[in-house]
Design goal:
The protein has about 300 residues and is an alpha+beta fold. It folds into two domains: about 1-250, paralog of FGE (formylglycine-generating enzyme) (Alpha-Beta Complex), CATH 3.90.1580.10; about 260-305. About 30% of the residues lie in helices and about 15% in strands. The protein is built from six helices and ten strands. The strands form three sheets. The chain has a four-stranded antiparallel β-sheet with strand order 1-2-5-10. A hairpin with a 6-residue loop joins β1 and β2 (about 35). The longest helix has 28 residues, at about 255-280. The N and C termini lie far apart (about 45 Å).
Length: about 300
């Protein structure tokens, strides 16, 4: 598998190669794309890493949706325009403010406010590590091959496809990992919704609660840190109110939350179509226009029924 991926990367040069199709869902509020991460069990942590990564233990993660890439400046700009929240410190710095770069210099509280506005959430620490490791594949780094070099990620230094000297790369500049997720190694540290606590990890001990106090976990490394910090098991942490030029985030949703949003959108769509259908029946149109309009509407209705939607 690694050899096959490496061959594809060689043919693709420095552009991210086309990946097999993954299930995706687009959030209407900010336009972000979330990728389906199938649930499973994996070994979380590392007995060869930092003390707070030990002991490694088996953790089961339910399937969920995770941002295809880190939240970008373009997406964050929609949030600022809608809410009037404070701009990040480097918002006007040309090194950090390109629309397709990850937004950085956001506090955990900033990320939380964004998630509330966009009707999403931050991933838990377990979800993040599971997704980066590609589940049971147990990758060491969240890259296309599980290895780390400058053709696969943006981290300290430059070389190969990594020409980004001490700045974040545009999201998606490097190949995604096997789950279809970009920049899970390097680029920007990513806030998680989890409060830092010692291992072993337990989902029912309160660490994944919404409390705003304490240290919050960051994952993934960044353009300014070396390979050790880009490992999927590496844990970083900061207080919720602190700003750093390397701090960004990506969003997540539970499957039940996406299903609920889809059902709401479908309900609105069907209601609107019913209104249009009644309107066409009530107004007086030239016969040809009426036939064309009703034919198009009936075709749409049949399509909705074929998709399992009640009309």
């Amino acid at each position: 598998m690694v050899i096959q991926v490496a061959a594809v990367l060689a043919l693709a040069g420095c552009s991210a190669p086309r990946q097999p199709a993954h299930r995706t869902w687009t959030n209407a509020t900010d336009g972000s794309v979330l990728v389906w991460v199938p649930g499973g069990e994996f070994s979380m942590g590392s007995n060869q890493g930092d003390p707070d990564e030990k002991p490694a233990n088996r953790v089961r993660v339910a399937g969920f949706w995770l941002g295809e890439h880190e939240v970008t400046n373009a997406e964050y700009a929609k949030f600022l325009q809608a809410t009037g929240n404070r701009k990040p410190d480097f918002w006007d710095d040309p090194r950090f403010n390109k629309p397709n770069q990850p937004v950085v210099s956001v506090t955990w509280n900033d990320a939380l406010q964004y998630c509330k506005w966009a009707n999403v959430r931050l991933p838990t620490e377990a979800e993040w590590e599971y997704a980066a490791a590609a589940g049971k594949r147990q990758l060491r780094y969240g890259t296309a091959t599980g290895k780390l070099d400058h053709d696969l990620a943006n981290f300290a230094g430059t070389g190969g496809c990594d020409t980004y000297e001490d700045v974040p790369a545009p999201v998606g500049s490097f190949p995604p990992n096997p789950f279809g997720l970009y920049d899970m190694a390097g680029n920007a540290w990513e806030w998680c919704g989890t409060t830092w606590m010692p291992y072993p990890y337990r989902a029912d001990d309160g660490r994944d609660g919404p409390e705003e106090g304490g240290y919050k976990v960051m994952r993934g490394g960044c353009w300014h840190f070396g390979p050790f910090h880009c490992r999927v098991a590496c844990r970083h942490r900061h207080m919720t109110y602190l700003r750093y030029d390397y701090a960004g985030f990506r969003v997540a949703l539970s499957d039940s939350e996406v299903k609920s949003k889809r059902a709401q959108a479908q309900s609105v769509l069907i209601g609107s179509l019913r209104d249009v259908y009644r309107y066409l029946r009530e107004v007086s149109l030239p016969p040809q226009q009426e036939r064309e309009a009703l034919t198009a509407l009936n075709l749409l209705v049949r399509t909705l029924r074929a998709a399992g939607l009640e009309w």
